[in-house]
Amino acid sequence: MAVSLGRGAFQIKEPVYITSYAAVVGKKEGEGPMGKCFDRVETDSYFGQKTWEQAESRMQQETIYHALEKAALSPDDIDIILAGDLINQCTSSTYSLRPFGVPFLGLFGACSTMAEGLIIGSLILSSGAGKRCVAATSSHFSTAERQFRFPLSYGGQRPPTAQWTCTASGAVVLDTQTENSPRISSVCIGKITDLGVTDANNMGAAMAPAAADTLTRWFKCSGKSPENYDAIVTGDLGKIGGKLFAEIMMKQGYDVNPCYHDCGAMMFDAETQDTHAGGSGCGCGGSILCGHFLPLVKSGKIKRMLFMATGALMSPMLVQQGESIPSIAHLVEITGE
Amino acid sequence: MAVSLGRGAFQIKEPVYITSYAAVVGKKEGEGPMGKCFDRVETDSYFGQKTWEQAESRMQQETIYHALEKAALSPDDIDIILAGDLINQCTSSTYSLRPFGVPFLGLFGACSTMAEGLIIGSLILSSGAGKRCVAATSSHFSTAERQFRFPLSYGGQRPPTAQWTCTASGAVVLDTQTENSPRISSVCIGKITDLGVTDANNMGAAMAPAAADTLTRWFKCSGKSPENYDAIVTGDLGKIGGKLFAEIMMKQGYDVNPCYHDCGAMMFDAETQDTHAGGSGCGCGGSILCGHFLPLVKSGKIKRMLFMATGALMSPMLVQQGESIPSIAHLVEITGE
């Protein structure tokens, strides 16, 4: 059962547990400050495939298999897989999941997908439908850059606000049975927010207001505040968007700075890795949640955290047509047992 | 509460009602045999906007407003909107929903989106999270053709197996309170199915095995058969795919022919409207469900039906890379009160 706490905010009454999780990343992500936390670092950007699109699918597939293996599960044990990605028609996910034979619900939340999958998965399990589901997502630098910006061989200049799409994937197994695991205790579904940013090279600024909208709403609905959390984590606002987000929250009366982290800012060493404002992509938040934060919850070092993945819900064509960039942020409250 | 009946099949125990629905279509769809069943037929393919992408967003937006108005509801009465479409990064939905201010979960299921939204919406309401949600989808001939096939001005030849993407949108309001309305009694989530079809001009053939897989699984899980239904409806298999689907079902021991309908085959008069194998697109099944079938359930002429929307989960790039077309079909059982 879930109970409404207010607009889009729901408390999960009967436990939904995070029984397993895995993260797989590419070479550059493995060389960054978070490199040691991932289950696997693949140095071949093609993941042994012929195209980058096939590579991203293979990476996502391997991540899901890793998460299943860690819980001694097979695809037959999974009732539903929820997945999505950035690539047109979400093919990284649909081609990834072809061999699994598991009932599939496709999502599009751009870089908010990891949180969206955890929200839908935990609400579906709360209804009694199924015992176990998987939420997964991925992004790949080479598939995203050529789709959203320029052909890689063009060597386009990147402004300082630009972020670096991570080659990374995260997968989480949710169930209703594995006690003594981190659990999803509440969720808050994002609203589409658009303050008129039109610069596709400044995604962090476009997404920061969406994150602030969701978090402020969550605090108002739940009666909680930053002091209730060991960590408040955004997916890929990057350094510029993250600073803006903390400033907006401060204006709303909430000081998030003591416990605030952004996976995009954590992923790379901007000085030595030439990644400007930080990492981005569905896999950025997904892999750092699964590689870094969930193990900290599992070990008891984090007792209560918020994971808030943000997504820019635009396409290159709409930006070319002069449209601004609508964004969204979905929130998941994760609690240690 | 929902109860598992078998792999991906769930019975909705406490009623989820279809309290309102609406369909808006374009000129050609309005001139076809179903023309009179829609809430609105717009003769301007731009829907008063500057681009076709904006037109599709506007059409979807109007459809949702129609559905809300028919139930005397405003966006503030809606807890969650679930929507998706065919366009890259689902922008027809995200730009459509910007002004609503309603918590949003983005879906990608290609032409299966109407059924996917109804499934997730009814399972979420079954969990107790929220009282009311909207599931919506759309497609537009001009946005889809130039994205998936050729620029319209190129005037490419269409083979006889090709389908005509409908300019159409459907929206459904689900709630847990409006008795004496059609209700969603069970759902069955599709698996990704790929029998190796590589011809993007023969989507019906690619999707038919997915529809047969889901329906066969549903019959086995539920113990039901075609005789239990007044109508078994697929979204957009078209004439060729629909025939293939019925043949596969017959080989599995189920004769669906006495009650089988395909929204793609129903939408146009192929002889006079030059639409080859029939209509397609997310809005095809969505608009005929909302314009034709739900009113028949509401009036008691249909007591029990299955709506099964099929989706081809491919992109032009993956087809160009030589990949075959994975497909999916999601099933919703709708029962009159």
Description of the structure:
Two copies of one chain form a homodimer. The first copy, chain A, is of the alpha/beta class. Chain A folds into two domains: 2-175, Stage V sporulation protein AD (Peroxisomal Thiolase, Chain A, domain 1); 183-335, Peroxisomal Thiolase, Chain A, domain 1, CATH 3.40.47.40. The first copy, chain A, has helices at 27-31, 52-70, 91-97, 113-126, 141-148, 203-222, 238-251, 263-267, 270-273, 282-298, 316-320, and strands at residues 2-6, 9-26, 40-42, 80-85, 104-106, 132-139, 164-165, 168-175, 183-188, 231-234, 260-262, 279-280, 304-312, 327-335. In chain A, the strands form two sheets. In chain A, strands 1, 2, 3, 4, 5, 6, 8, 9, 10, 11, 13 and 14 form a twelve-stranded mixed β-sheet that branches. In chain A, strands 7-12 form a two-stranded parallel sheet. In chain A, a hairpin with a 2-residue loop joins strand 1 (2-6) and strand 2. At the A-B interface, strand 1, helix 3, strand 5, helix 4 and helix 11 of A face strand 1, helix 3, strand 5, helix 4 and helix 11 of B.
